[in-house]
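Sample A.
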Amino acid sequence: MRKIFTHYHTLNKVGLWLSILCTIHCLAMPFLMTALPFLGESFLSEQSEMYLIGASAVLAIFLLIKDYRNHQNPLPLRLLVVALCFNFTGLFLAKGTYEILFNVTGALVMASAYYVNWNSHRRACHSHSH
């Protein structure tokens, strides 16, 4: 457990995969809603979107701020702010096709923030192996 809290690489990977899962969820939703209506109240519910985006956001805020202190690259945090704006708009303001567009864009931007952070962290941690 100490290794996870020391380097945060495992949590970074979890966050990246949560963002990717959110993207897949948002892209699959229109097709699955049409083909499999009984899934509409579980996998495809608005509540599951809130859980996915919320978990990704909390993890991203924690990890990106922690890693920023190490590598001093503000780009991942800026991308995170943009991603959260897209996700907030998609969850609470946009409807229909726009909701999907905002949420997918937010998830992709958040995944980009994780990727940029991972590269920055890797360059900053060149003195030891992971």
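Sample B.
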Amino acid sequence: MLRIRLRRGGKRNQPSYRVVVADKPAPRDGRFIENLGHYNPLTDPVTLEVNKDRVEHWMSLGAQPTETVHRLLYKHGIIETEPPKRVTKPTRAEREAAEAALAAENQDDDGAAEADTPSAEVTNEEETPEDSSS
């Protein structure tokens, strides 16, 4: 299976990438079939220069872009199909909001059930004062 993916180059802490067509099992910086362009994330705005005709050619032959390349090509208007959404774990705030909503639903359900039956209040009358003798 062919993939359109990024091949890293550049110095340490100064990445630059080439957009290449490679076999899926080939190493990230290893053997590739064709160089389609380059991508530099350090420039402002980022630089992406690819040969659109060759990208369309390889995609017509069945090459699949990786998630990152798909996102880049879509952002720069080379591909019309929107990249797939990433499946991520919910954040702590999202988990707490979901738990609060679930608790509120449970309270509403309990409140409706308690309205039908008389409620019994439980009180603790056996409180013992603490002895302050030393």
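B remarks: The radius of gyration is 30 Å. The beta strands are 2-11, 14-23, 34-40, 47-50, 64-65.
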